[in-house]
Structures are given as structure tokens and as C-alpha cells.
Predict the 3D structure of the following.
Amino acid sequence: MLDKVSVTFDMLARKSEVDPQLTNPHMAARKKGAQEPERREFGAEVTRLLEILVHSVYADREVFLRELISNASDACDRLRYLTLSDSALMGGDAELRIEISADAGTVELTDNGIGMSRDELIDNLGTIAKSGTRAFMAEAGSEGAASGQIGQFGIGFYSAFIVASEVEVTSRRAGTGDCWTWRSDGTGSFSVEPAPADAVARGTRVRLSLREGMAEFADVSRLAHIVKTHSDHVPFPIDIVEIKGGKRGAPDRANSASALWSRPKSAITEEQYTEFFGALSGIFDPPALTIHYKAEGRHEYDVLLFVPQTRPFDLFDPARASRVRLYVRRVLITDEAEILPAYLRFVRGVVDSADMPLTVSRDMLQDNPVAAAIRKALTNRVLATLAREAESNPDSYATLWEAFGAVIKEGLYEDYERRDELLELLRFRGTAGDGLRSLKDYVAGLKENQTAIYFMTGENARALGSSPQLEGFRARGLEVLLLTDPVDSFWTQAVMGYDGKPFKSVARGADDLAGMARTDDAATAPHDDGAAPRPAEMASAIAFLKQTLGEAVSDVRASERLVESAACLVAPDGGLDRTLERMLGERQGGERTAPVLEVNPRHSLIVALARSVVGGGGRMAEDTARMLFDYALITDGEKPRDMSAFARRLQEMMEKALA
């Protein structure tokens, strides 16, 4: 978008130079040595576009300082580059620097970079979006591009009018003796005139006369904060000087002038990484993983990312915002760049692009092809780093998984392209032991005739471990993964399986255990008298339970998954996992699907109920049926639907038992 805006500005500005309808005929060009200010008009269209630019493209007022510092940094970079072939340009002042001074109502920014001649002032500042940096890079070719120029689009300077009623630019081109001043109020015209010979020794001074209500930008502490936030890693020192009563105070260094991410890894200590990570994230423990590299090729950018050891406080913020800072040539664009997917939002760090325009906004990042390429490469690099850590340092990775596994799993239903890589990163607790296991480990331990990866979702592993739904699987030595993060109920619906084995919830649908032999001692299993009712008796009991419970259940059936318990609840075939349905019901309300009641045909209670039904049943059988359903609800982590009726039936049964 900004490329198109820049082209439009260039066309309109050129038109204003040749079209008599758009220029003041009395403002003819004067000779170079003229003493009177030479005035020129912005074209009418250009003036309007300037107004739109100042009030729309730049939403934050403080960015004017970032833009001016970027221009000053470019000027210093250009001089440093040109002195490679002409060392005389540097003269006796070889320390390139930027200074910001402020007094009541005025802010000045001075650099001792390349500076501008009279023609360059007119050409660069009088023509909106005519970038001196861009022209320099075109002339210098690839070597100029490699020098790290920031302001390629030429519109940043005009952000000064956000806070200034008048802008005055005084400049001297390196290697020349003439000094010139450009001045404008940004409304319709600008002037150019000679400046005193000693106004600027070399480089450029930008003086801003602040608008009413902009006094905050004459506060040196406010300026220092802006520099630290947006331009801390500009590679030239930035000093701030306070002026009071015409007296200059001592200069105060406002930036570090060193981009850690642009330095070679061999030149950085672990202590420096830790210090930078702490300043960046507010987490002062050493990072668990550091990813530092420079990408070269089609796109060039520096990357310095950190994986914390512990959860950041905002890990589960509903906004799920990334906390990676995006810089363009060491100038901060945003501290919440969506340069990594939301499921990697725990990663902190910096990406510094050499290809993106400085004026790219957070919204523009969505459609920027360079940003898209960086996003893809960074995501792959982070996942590869985590996979390497999981393989080489399983104990360290286990700590990371406990901290960030819940959000990594979000990628299983958000990032289909990388689902296979994410599945390899997963770690689980299961019924086979206390340690964390991978899916690869699980599949390696499959039992004979086992065709699925069994799992169960719930709020905590301890409660899940005692669930009656697990009894039949435990009796056959089948491991069940215990999934306790809320996200588990979602991704297990979206992922078909792993290594050809589907994921199957032990609390949903019919069990498939009939063909698998039990490995426990069935004869000594508690609550199992081994005297199952005859098929006809069991059919009568199931029909009685269906009739008595009515719409409270969608079905009643005999179960192979129960060993010790009399009954349990499961989701119907094709229905939602009960944990997921419970979560959705709590958040969205609405009716829930009636569960399936499964009963253990070998349990003494079910045997007694079946015989009671065959013998005529009665109220006692009906109360037992309803108590059996309430019991199943309780073991599933829910409350009986009618607490008063449950209490009454429980009391009556206890009284009869003691009679």
C-alpha cells in the first residue's frame, strides 16, 4: 500500500513543479547565493495528501522522533559508507553521533552525517516521498543496500508535523562549505535560504517548534523514554541535552547503540543473553533455549528468540498475542508482531528485517510477503529447536512441556500444515507410569490386536486414574493417555491419528475390548462374583433400566470396560467427548446429549437387579435403577440431577440395610 502511496506522491509532486495551475508564478528559482528566502509551493493535491499522511498513516504522535532518528541514522550510515572511497569527507570529526536537545516549546535533533546541499533539501524535503536514501541505494547498487539504510520511502520526515507547527532543517553537505536552511509549516509552502556558515559544521539539524498541547515532547525524560523504546538499538550513540535559561546541560546517553541480535554469537556471552532476555521479557531467570541466527538469501533478517523456563504471566491471555518485537533496520515497528503463530506465544525475542519498509504497520504485516516468509521460516525454526531439545535433553524438555505444552497443543487444530511436527513434540502422562511419554513411545508399546491410541480427558490425572471407564483397559494391560488440559478435548476431535493409529476416547462409544485377553487375575477382582445373569435376565434388566431412566439416557448396554464398578457413563457413538460437551455447556448453555449408561453384567449389584426385575421388580428396583444412574454421574465428576431425590433414596436404602 505504501509503495502505491509513494508513487502517487512522486507523480503529484513532479506535476506541481511544472504545472502553472499548481505553483505560484512569483516563486521562481533564485540563484544559489541569493540572500532572500526562496519560497516554493507544495501542490494543492500534495498538501492534502500530506495532511492525510500525518493524521492517518502515523497514529501515534511519538513516532515522529523515531522517524527523525531513522533519517539521522541513515545520514550517518551514508557518510560512513562514502568515506570508504573518500576518507576526506569525515574531516576531523570521525565519531558519528546523534543529539537531541529540548527547551520550552522547541526540540532539536542534530546529526553529523552526510548532510544535504541546497538542491538536495529542495529535492528530498520539497517533494513528498522523494527519498534521498532510496536514491543513494539506487546509485550504490547492492553495496549500498548492504549498508543498512533505514528510510527507503521518504515519507517519515513529514511525521514531524504531527507535533510541530513549524519545522526548520539546517544542513551542510559533507565536503562542502555552504550551509542551507529549509523551513515550512506544512500547510502549503516551504522556503530555502542560506544559513550562517557556522550554523552546522557537518550534517543536519532539525528544529521543531511544538504545537500547542505538545509540551510533553520538550520533556527530556519523555524523549529519553521514546528513544529507549523505539530506537535503543540504532547503531549510533544518541545523547539528550536539556536546555534551561539558554544554558545547555550535560549530555545524557539515551540508547545502547548496540543491537545484540546483529552481533555474531561467538561475541556474546550467556550473561549478555540473559540480561537482554530479562530486559525484553521482564523474566530474569536465564532462558531455557536461545535461537540466534542471521538469515540470508532472498530475504535478510536477524533473529534472536528465547524460550523461557517458566510460564510468562500472560500466557493464557485471551488475546493470545505474540510477544516478538519486529524491527526494521534496528528501528522498532511493533512489540507484538504476529511473526509467530499464537500457539508459540510464549517465545520472546526480536526479529530485525532488512527488507520491509520502515512504515509498515501491524495491519500491513498481515499481507506483507516478506513478513509471511519470515513467519514461515521462524515457525519452522522454533519447532525444529524444540524437537532437537526433546531428543537430546528429555529432562529439560519435560520441564518446558509442563510449562508450555497446553498452548503448543493449540497448533494441532490451528496449523494443519505442521501437525505432524507438532505430534512429535507432544508428551503425555498415562496409566503405564508417572513419567512423560511421547506418541512414539506409546505406539512402540501397543498390545497384540490393539488398533487405537486410547485416551481420556478430564480435569486432573488423579481423578482420571480412578475412573471406572479405565478398568477394562487396565485389566488388559492397555495404556490410556490421561489428558487434563482444556485444549485436549478440542484437538483430539481434529486429529485423525498418529502412525496409522486413530485416537479413541475410552469414554465415548462402544468399547472394543472383547477380542483382547485380560492379563489380571479375574477370579480375585473385587465386586465380581463371576455369576453373570443369563442373557434373558440381562436383557430384561437393560430394558427395565431404559424404561425407568427414560430420557436421562440415550441407551443402556452391557460393558466390557467395567471390572470393579457396577456402572459408568460414556458418550454415544459419534457424539462429543463428555468433557468437551461439559465445557461447551458451561460456556454456551443449551441442552446436553443424554449419555449412554453401561453396566457390568458380572457385578453383584447388576446380578441382583436383574433377578429382582425378573421376579417382578417394584419400587426397590426402580430406586436402585435411579441410584445406579446417580452413582455413575458422581463417578464421572458430576452431581445427581435431583439432589433431594437422591438424598431421599440414599436414606431409605440405608435404613432398609440396617433394619
Summary: The chain has a mean pLDDT of 84.
